[in-house]
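Listing S7. Sequence submitted for prediction.
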Amino acid sequence: MRVLFISRASFYSDKGGDTIQALNTAEQLRQLGVSIDIKLCNERIDYSKYDLIHFFNIIRPADILRHIQKSGKPFVVSTIYVDYSEYEKKMRKGIAGWLFRTIPPDLIEYAKAIARSVVGGEKIISPSYILLGQKRSVKKIIRQASMLLPNSENEYKRLVNHFQIGQKYRVIPNAIDPELFNAVSGRMARIKNRVLCVGRIEGRKNQLNLIKAIKGSTFELFVIGSPAPNQSAYYKACKQAAGPNVHFIENIPQEKLIDFYLSAQIHVLPSWFETTGLSSLEAAAMGCQIVVTDKGDTREYFENLAHYCDPSLPDSILKAIEEAAIAKPAKALQEKIITKYIWPVTAAKTLEAYKIALQ
């Protein structure tokens, strides 16, 4: 079986959770005998070599439409269906903030696609997207897909609820590398009240409210990540708000995160929205207590084994951290992650979905 992965033009230059998901899924599928090539949406592609195309990020339909029209190949979509409309409406400043508070979510995404093209240089490769708009473009992709591959049942339900159209689907869980993120008992003592937040520094990840939450507290916070493109002002605001108990460390390779995960008592990801939160999965596998946003699909992964916060309220974030600090060791969550949410399981489920899609 020959499968082509197609993702956004900034897949490598602006790495995100979708980058990690696609690269690890590809690696594991190759071990199962599947031939995988990864191309960017703006590349010239010879589709004839492939049996199936696998797209990522359904909220970026402008990256997909041209390829389904030109290839004529069956395709599946890892939907990664996020909803940042609350963040856009509440936290965006200036003209963009005013605009996003007055238009519906689909028009927000349409405006962002146009802005990426005009300002960011990400050319809209599908002219039909301009005419169809965001919502009709996504519905067209759903309608024509052989199968959708959401990260959770809740993600699929949100998708159907918003677009009022369904399709065959299989849940493909997000995951971790079980060999890399494998806590070794006694390797390192956890430091009481040490808090970790791993992720790109940007408004949507909400590090600023986390910093405000622990300011003046007995907690010591390590923020690990680099600012996302066009987020330098947000990064500056985070550093200005930080007290002496906050430390910033630029993005480091995953293997170098291990000692941080092992030494921290708590990992916090208070995002405005998460389908999962890969760093939360990694930290849970390493035995950290988990504080995570209550916005999105996080409860399907972490159930009652994590501590949830309202990202808009620093007091809510602090309360969840305080609860995590006195909680018993998170053995049940750790066991769940390292058995159910690992890349070999993800790849096996993906291959099963491919076979159904090609029938």
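Caption to Listing S7: primary sequence and predicted structure tokens for the chain studied. The chain has a mean pLDDT of 94. The radius of gyration is 20 Å.
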